[in-house]
Structure prediction request, 606 residues.
Amino acid sequence: MRVVIQRTGLSADVLRAWERRYGVVAPDRSEGGQRLYSDDDVERLTLLRRATTAGRNISQISALPLPELEALVAEDETLRASQEETPEGRRHAAHPFTDAAGRAVERFDVADLEAQLRRAAMQLGSAIAVDEVITPVLRDIGDRWHKGELTPAHEHMATAAIRRVLAWMSASALVPHYAPLAVVATPANQRHELGAKIVSTTATTEGWRVLFLGADLPAESIAAAVAQSGASLVALSMIFPEHDPGLVAELARLRQLLPPHVQMVAGGPAAVANQTDLVAHGTRVMHSLAELRVLLRSLNPAA
Amino acid sequence: MRVVIQRTGLSADVLRAWERRYGVVAPDRSEGGQRLYSDDDVERLTLLRRATTAGRNISQISALPLPELEALVAEDETLRASQEETPEGRRHAAHPFTDAAGRAVERFDVADLEAQLRRAAMQLGSAIAVDEVITPVLRDIGDRWHKGELTPAHEHMATAAIRRVLAWMSASALVPHYAPLAVVATPANQRHELGAKIVSTTATTEGWRVLFLGADLPAESIAAAVAQSGASLVALSMIFPEHDPGLVAELARLRQLLPPHVQMVAGGPAAVANQTDLVAHGTRVMHSLAELRVLLRSLNPAA
DNA sequence: TAACTATTGACAAAACCTAGACAATTCAAC
DNA sequence: GTTGAATTGTCTAGGTTTTGTCAATAGTTA
Prediction:
């Protein structure tokens, strides 16, 4: 009994209630009348618990045969896993690195900054490192530069270090040659390249080959690159300016130039600001790197 | 009798009660009627104790033959260990990599194996990659090699790849020069080096500098290395043989040779098997890498 | 003789059992 | 929005089983 409680994670009360009310299992009894569960019973109860914690109600599933139960649980859990995020825990884990990196920037200590970022990536994984360390550090530097607490030199030093760390992360990923290919760039008149670098690294660590084109590219160049390389995805990073009147038209034109089977996604402040127009022209807008990762995973046939 | 009490950890009363009530063992008797236990009896009683502390009730398991008992205990304990240390979600996230790595081993595809492991490290973080991908893959290879499904060549190929990935992980960590120093080795007569490599990488990613000495080293050599390098921690990996009579004495000697302020920790099957003796001589025994990480973090003044 | 060990019977804490009740949700109907 | 019924996890009460420990008495070993 105790073993079953441990293994299934169900309380003794629930165990008995389920048996009494729904007859989910029928364990043998000892001479004294105590329950003796079989391995199959345990298997079954574990599945039922997982199904119920995923939202099913027992009365509905109590009579299901084991294989059907398995299928049900598998389906529920993969669905949930794809939706789930855990903001509070990761932030907590990332905080020491964010903190140390911030201080390294102040001190102009490039080596330490780079070490902190790389260690963050190794300890937390590249996704969390990008979301919870690199991005916050960049934002923090921007804020403090506005307040006059940091000089442009600080910012240059930091972005150079971040660039190196991103390059290292990309190089570390060892993407197989049969991986799908994404083209990453910044559209015309968008001159901030770092966001595109981050997107590029994200795609690489998600198992994509990346053709990085850089910043401020006209639609024709991007389309030509896609055609020659056979990429199946175009990812655009758009930061500033947010309300460039030419931007939407430029992307609409690119959409026209691309083959229909090539997906086109855009992210960053300027993308979110023009969301409705972009969506209308057939561009998907990403609100976070996490959203981009989900998309990349769903489009990657290897994973 | 005395001896049996010590070795099994059971009280004399319990010993007699179990024999009387459930007939768990039938020891020979001396002329005067006193119990004379055989080694098998002790083995059996120890297993029964482990099973009961894991939650089983004696009356149910008292009649089980020895091999079944062993299987039961092993199952209970590994299950418990894995439940405690893996909050469910990690496993789920790591599973695709473990899976792909296993298939890469089958196919002799070194490049893919290495790519999978490195991508696992980048996506999940090195700790999870080690615990949920590398360790399971190694175990899996061992199992399938025993079953004849894999050849020694598979194993060599895989360990070589794992070695490279561990080296890459260590190199990626960029440990600062002021970090505390740990000496990692394997004591005399312990020839498995890979466990020590894993420990070494774990320490590095936790922000320690590591002096890796390798396998099968006498206490004097280790002590000399510690003295010259000024290390503050000695970490020993001990896999096989588990019941080497010289092992405990060797570690006791090493403890004597080391300055008192230097911590000494041991992990691996052979460490767990000799736990009580080792602890008595002042060596801490780690049951998992997770436990080691906690210790490393608590000893590291920088973090 | 001193220190252990054996046997037997008894005891009490811990773990389980049944049956029933209760409270928080959920859900359909009004 | 409210009401009432069904669902479901938890709790209570009173009894049984299991299991570790103790005590009393007696024998064994060094």
Observations:
- The two ends of chain B are 50 Å apart (CA to CA).
- Chain B has 15 helices and seven strands.
- Strands of chain B lie at 28-29, 35-36, 181-187, 209-217, 233-237, 263-267, 284-286.
- Residues 11, 13-14, 17-18, 21, 30-34, 52, 57-59 of chain B lie near DNA strand D (CB under 10 Å from a C1').
